[in-house]
Design goal:
This protein has 751 residues and is an alpha+beta fold. It contains 26 helices and 11 strands. The strands form 3 sheets. Strands 6, 7, 8, 9 and 10 form a 5-stranded antiparallel beta sheet that branches. Strands 2-3-1-4 form a 4-stranded antiparallel beta sheet, with helices on both faces. The chain has a two-stranded parallel ribbon with strand order 5-11. Helix 7 packs antiparallel against helix 11.
Length: 751
């Protein structure tokens, strides 16, 4: 592989104008597709294989037209103190508001009457109006939303407390200005790392091009592939982080090759052949982790994974082709003025080292070398401190509660949250999350009797606030019953009630043969959380297993990949503990702008496992391949660790700081899901890079010694040799008349 990538790097360097033109053209085409694509609708949400989804599908069949993909709004009113919503002035005002809502937009389908639809609270102080729209929330025009908001303002002017809930006011989540701060931090780190504005700008430029191509493609295909609005944000988050990192490693290796006295074209080829090989395998681990989300069998999550994996593939391709092309344009300026002077000095020192046999690095060890030697002196202490520290941070993960966000998790300043609270106060906490019990009596045509039995049984269960009369379909074979819990939708009590109704449904089926199913938004959320929990271990086994095999091929070892996987598990559990502490317990919540604590988003653990595992393996590959490279060239295990840190620690540190900053930038997002994912990924990368890879890994390798690189002979013969370290490439370049062949001869002749 290294030889092929070496040729690719040199080709891109020589044909840089064509390569740059191709990428600019791809960006233009993707941008045009995104600009001309129709507005993306909200992604359809389904959970195949769950009872809630089965009941939902049954309702579509038996009650045709009862479900709608149109947006809804719930305008909630509270009467002034001492008055009631049933008083004549309030009734007249509600009638006036309903008329305004009906006439406010052609997209309005219907507006309910609270006085005929039993939408007034028992104490008569709260009422609500349901507004149904003909189109989805994403397709609502700004004028329609403005008319809805203006109606609320008019009602407030008349003295009624008025708030608006539902999905009609939902808009695509915004990431906030802090995302720009994250990119700015990345720029500063790159300037410090390279000491050159031009060299620092290359990773940022190529990463932005890659994100532009990837996100524009996602936007262009959003309607065709039914992608949600958050898909492009997650794709940009991951694409930007890996795009900067992969470019950083290629540029760093290119500058190192120049310091060895290589010609520019040869240095570009060698950089792509060596660091590029690590980029390919690091990218593969990320892609495996993201594509592996498909095993959960939740279409929304699978699409998010595939979209993010696509941006990673683009980042890898850009690092292998566009980076060497831009290095060709940069020329000597890639070092800056001071850097060019330093380069000349480095070359002079290298010539002196070649003459005396004393490496400059041995005389003046850098920070990475000093840190590695410190760890090698105290490996047990470093290992214990690292493991216990992450273990302590992971303790809150034992209290992890999962759920999906609703209006109750919105910031308290929003009208959606205020409407949610008004309904909870007026109608009870469970009113915002009613359960729909579906009685399928088709098997014995006795749905009515079965529904009566279900109603009587459910009324006796703990945690039930109200049960509505059964509603039969036209065929008389299916009935629906609405159950209002006593507790809020995301509570443990409501979850227990769902399970109790399902258990009672088994008894009804035994008596009458009718199927009893529980659905509704609350039941869907409960089933979603359960499905995510059930899929976590199989997904973890699949992803870690495939990546273990991949890393075994890369490192020609069994213990190194095993250590990498165990270290990842430690860092991801610690990151989950931090997420629980902040978003569930409320620690440092105000500092991070978390206005409402509650259950952790259901997909967070499995999504973190997928994304963080791939990113964690990046640092494992980039850092340990340098150690492996030194080891196979005859260095002792301890010295190989020092060599790996001398060459790789600074770059890996810069890459980790950049990735942490990029992810942390999304903490400023207004959407709670994006905020939580940004925080979780930021702390996970920080823990994995600076505690696991930079401390625990060298400590474990020190304790293992030569055994770290052991591989059974029979397995060594089976595994393909992909030459990630570039060992065979160096042999070809050192002996072009031997293994190199005619292609290598011609390439070397051009140097």
């Amino acid at each position: 592989m290294a030889t092929f990538l070496y040729k690719l790097g040199r080709l891109a360097f020589r044909r840089r104008r064509y390569v740059a033109l191709v990428w600019v053209a791809l960006l233009a085409v993707a941008g045009f597709g995104a600009a001309t694509a129709s507005t993306a609708t909200s992604s359809s949400f389904s959970i195949p294989g769950t009872e809630a989804q089965k009941a939902f599908d049954l309702l579509d069949q038996r009650f045709p037209g009862s479900s709608s993909d149109g947006a809804t709004a719930r305008v909630v009113f509270k009467a002034p103190t001492g008055e009631k919503m049933t008083d004549a002035p309030q009734k007249a005002e509600v009638k006036k508001i309903s008329d305004r809502l009906t006439a406010g937009s052609a997209q309005v389908s219907s507006v309910s009457d609270p006085y005929t639809q039993n939408a007034v609270s028992k104490d008569k102080t709260t009422a609500y109006v349901e507004v149904a729209y003909k189109v989805s929330s994403a397709e609502l025009t700004d004028a329609t939303r403005a008319a809805l908001e203006h109606t609320g303002e008019q009602a407030r002017a008349e003295g009624l407390t008025t708030e608006i809930g539902g999905d009609a006011l939902q808009v695509a989540p915004e990431t906030g200005a802090t995302e720009i701060i994250g990119v700015a931090v990345a720029a500063v780190v790159l300037v410090i790392t390279f000491g050159s504005l031009l060299a620092a700008g290359l990773p940022l430029l190529t990463a932005l091009i890659g994100v532009g191509v990837g996100v524009s493609t996602v936007t262009a295909l959003a309607n065709v592939l039914d992608l949600g609005s958050t898909t492009s944000i997650l794709a940009s988050m991951i694409g930007l982080a890996v795009g900067i990192d992969y470019a950083l490693f290629i540029v760093s290796r290119y500058r190192a090759e120049l310091a060895e006295g290589r010609e520019r074209e040869d240095a570009a080829g060698r950089a792509v052949g060596t660091a590029g090989s690590a980029v390919v395998f690091a990218g593969l681990t990320v892609v495996i982790a993201l594509v592996g989300l498909a095993v959960v069998n939740i279409p929304m999550l699978s699409k998010m994974g595939f979209a993010a994996a696509g941006t990673v593939v683009i980042a890898v391709l850009i690092a292998l082709t566009l980076i060497p092309a831009l290095l060709g344009f940069a020329g000597k300026r890639v070092h800056g003025r001071k850097g060019r002077t330093a380069l000349e000095g480095a070359l002079a020192k290298k010539r002196e080292a070649d003459r005396t046999g004393v490496e400059e690095a041995e005389k003046r060890p850098n920070l990475g070398t000093r840190w590695a030697r410190f760890v090698l002196r105290k490996p047990v202490t470093v290992l214990i401190v690292g493991v216990l520290g992450l273990g302590a941070i992971a303790i809150p993960a034992a209290s992890l509660e999962l759920g999906l966000p609703d209006d109750g998790s919105q910031p308290v300043s929003t009208t959606q949250r205020k409407a949610y609270d008004l309904l909870s106060d007026g109608f009870g906490p469970g009113f915002n999350g009613p359960l729909v019990v579906v009685v399928d009596g088709k098997a014995d045509d006795n749905a009515k009797a079965a529904a009566t039995e279900v109603s009587d049984t459910v009324k006796k269960l703990d945690g039930v606030a109200a049960v509505t009369p059964a509603h039969l379909n036209k065929a008389g074979d299916t009935a629906t019953i609405t159950v209002v819990p006593k507790d809020r939708p995301s509570s443990v009590g409501t979850e227990n009630l769902v399970h109790s109704i399902r258990d009672a449904g088994g008894t009804v089926k035994a008596d009458s043969g009718a199927d009893v199913l529980v659905t509704g938004a609350t039941a869907m959320n409960i089933d979603f959380s359960q499905k995510m929990n059930d899929a976590l271990l199989p997904y973890l086994a699949l992803v870690v297993g495939l990546a273990f095999l991949l890393l075994m091929v890369v490192f020609r070892s069994i213990l190194v990949p095993l250590k990498a996987a165990l270290g990842f598990l430690l860092s991801v559990v610690a990151a989950l503990g931090a997420v629980v502490a902040v978003f569930q317990w409320g620690w440092l919540a105000s500092l991070l702008g978390v206005e409402q604590t509650g259950p952790v988003m259901s997909m967070m653990p499995i999504f973190m496992v997928g994304v963080v595992f791939g990113l964690a393996m990046d640092y494992e590959v980039f850092l340990v391949t340098r150690m492996r490279e030194a080891y196979v060239h005859g260095e002792a295990p301890d010295q190989a660790i020092v060599t790996g840190f001398r060459h790789g620690a600074r770059v890996v540190t810069a890459a980790a700081v950049i990735m942490t900053a990029v992810f942390a930038g999304f903490i400023g997002a207004g959407d709670s899901m994006i905020k939580m994912i940004g925080f979780g990924l930021a702390v996970a990368v920080f823990f994995d890079a600076f505690v696991v890879r930079m401390a625990i890994v060298p400590a474990v390798l020190k304790l293992l010694g030569n055994r770290a690189w052991w591989l059974p002979r029979w397995l060594d013969r089976i595994l393909p040799n992909v030459d990630v370290e570039g060992e065979q490439l160096r042999k070809r370049l050192a002996d072009p008349g031997g293994d190199g062949g005619p292609d290598t001869d011609r390439e070397l002749a051009r140097v």
